[in-house]
Amino acid sequence: MPTRRHVGLAAAFVSSTVLGTALPVFAAHADSNTLYVNSAAANCSDSGTGSEAQPFCKVQPAADAAQPGQTVQIAPGNYPEQVTVTRSGTQGHPVTFRGGANHAQARSLVGVAPTGADAQALPHAFVLSGVHDVTVTGLGLQGLQEAVLVSDSDRITVDGNALRTVGSGASGAAPGIRVTGRTTASTVSRNLISTGKAGVAIDAGVTGAVVTTNQIRLAGPGVTVTDAPGTVVTSNTVVSNCAVPVTLAGNSANSTVENNVAASSGFPSGCAMKPDLIVSAASVSGTKADYNVVPARVDLVNYQWGDATYTSPAGFSAATGQGTHDVTSAQLAASAYPREAVDSADATAPGELATDILGNPRVDDPQVANTGTGAGFTDRGATETQDPLLVSVSGVPSQEIWHPLDVNLSVTVANAWGPVVGELDFGDGSPKVPVADGWTHPTHTYPAGGTYTVSVTVTDGVVTRTSSSTVTVAPLNPIEPAFSVWQQDWSVPRASFNVYAGSPWPITKFTLDFGDGSPTVEGPGPYSPDPFVHTFPGPGTYQVTAIVTDDHGRTGTRSQQVEIGKLLPLNRTIEAVKYGRVTEIYNDGNVWHDSGLTIPSLIPASTLDFTYAPSGARVIEAVENGVLHEIYSAPDGWHDNPVQGAGANITALSFAFSPSGARVIEAIENGVLHEIYSAPDGWHDNPIEGVAPNVTAMSFAFDASGRRVIEAIENGVLHEIYSAPDGWHDNPIEGVAPNVTAMSFAFDASGRRVIEAVENGVLHEIYSAPDGWHDNPVQGAGANIKNLTLKIRPTGDRVIEAVENNSLHEIYTNAGTWYDSATPVYQGGELTSVSLALR
Length: 839
What we know:
By secondary structure, the protein is an all-beta fold. Helices cover 2% and strands 46% of the residues. The strands form 14 sheets. It has a ten-stranded parallel β-sheet with strand order 1-2-5-8-11-14-17-20-23-26, with helices on one face. The two termini are 91 Å apart. Mean pLDDT is 85; it is low at 1-31.
């Protein structure tokens, strides 16, 4: 089917949709023969030379400076001015005013809108009087009267423009383009005129005018030639509502009216339709009218030739010998692009152009018989039917997890004039595949991540068209194995290993090398369903290596040192807040146990600290609904009592027994550090003087002399706060990075302060030494630690229980080397606060 826009005659009265469409900018060719105009350029100047670097702001200064052969290139934008052309070109070297390539790309609008303040004073877009060899092309034009007024000039070309609002304020029927006076050899071609009171007027005195390949649709006369002998009106599409499409008036003899699609319409007012062609009696002599398309009507006039009228081409031809190749079209009642116009024009007609209104070439529609002259396939009217072959391609990466390099393509080939042959190029060097007419959805697997250009090229024997699209395939992440190690009984050098790995393709094999000289073991994919249990020769440090292979042959390797059977059995007891309730988690030296929610704390708790009393009882200081409670074990069970006299809104605390056995709690109340302690007369709660506010976390212990030493986070900075005979002291700890979010503190056997802290999400050990504080990251510790608790064994080894990614991990040293349990030691629920004690 033809790729024409089918617009009903009713729609011919409204402005063209072409002008409201976003269209590409015409690319000008920069050279010494080009003057530039750009009203949007910040540095434009009307007193400059009109260079591309500094263009003119208005068109008029460029018109005043133009020389023969120069082009005035007008950038997209509005130019509310009337351009009066006074400079001429020479034959073969015109002065050219250019916007876009054709009317569809006319984004440079010249002229004052009819409603503008200057419309009366500046009624035209271009005025050309007494000049020669000038071209106006590819512009949007508007004005209160004629958009283009040409008078007494020679070899003027008005081509490829889009006339917008024109002629609305003039008395009578001001046309969009008027050629008048003693103008000779001028051409009005390929313009779109869709508003105003009239299209093109060729006035008395004009000779050699050519009006060709224009599209005129408006409520008024289309092309009116008056007393202008020898005028050529060829290949125009003219739909005139309540008016005559083509008129030769006065004495316009020896003219030509060929290859036009001309229709008078009664829309919208229901007025009487006029003849489609009127030739006055004085214009009949020597005039030729043929190869035109007019509407098929019943008893309505198509032609007025002299004083006679005719209601059909047959009657017109029989009576006058004219219009022997004219045809009627019923489509003209609904469309300005009748099928009868295809491949039927007189290609030898005067003024016939090699291209249509959009610059498209003449094309042979194989579905229509060639009935024209010359090559036989030129279309009548302003538009040449183009091969409607449509081709498009697009691609979307697959969302299927097992197909990460797949791209789902959509290929459309449609509306071809003949059988289609073509091929699809995936853009990765793989073989091209054939495509045919239709809609297909091939899937292609690319060799690797990257950006590829996929293209489809097809031909139907008439034209060849290509469509391309860019697809981006995400690069594959490498396989990164991980394995967990579990030793249920540290007294036996035996461990269980679970291997994990991620790949977009199925895992087919796991291999473990235990690093003790024993044979490697293999497990099947897609995952390690059962642990690999291995007995080592004895306690020690072993380099264990896991190798994982997927079904595409990719491998990943992970090696890490594993401590086997070296950690002495140690009872660890943790009191924790789980799901807002206090629970006890403990290890009896071999296995971890969760007591469940057995501690009788029915009130939601938010934070706690815990230690053993000298009697062996477990004593927990916990915040329940913002109130400080003491929870302790006794022979008859657990007890939970509020701490009388303690303040409210406690957000963090740390607790220890004093050398005298008193319970001493350092707590943050409303952002202020307080000391709460037990005495024979009850509990006491006092703010600690001299400490800055905005304390967010802290940890506390007694030193060997009985001083209270607090390590605290103040505004993200680690501080040491301690008691002395002269009061409390608060000093920042030098050399520690900011952004500390969680920490725990203890004294080692030598009296050093050892702090385990989370800095920017990474676990660090900060400790005091004779030469000052030291701050080092803990090698091998996991990330995303939210809170932690630290205790130091008599050997100096550290034991940290930390919440990593909402699971409890044990991080510890053994002979100075750090280890992090690869598998969480506890995954029984969300833990928000933890406190550890060793027995």
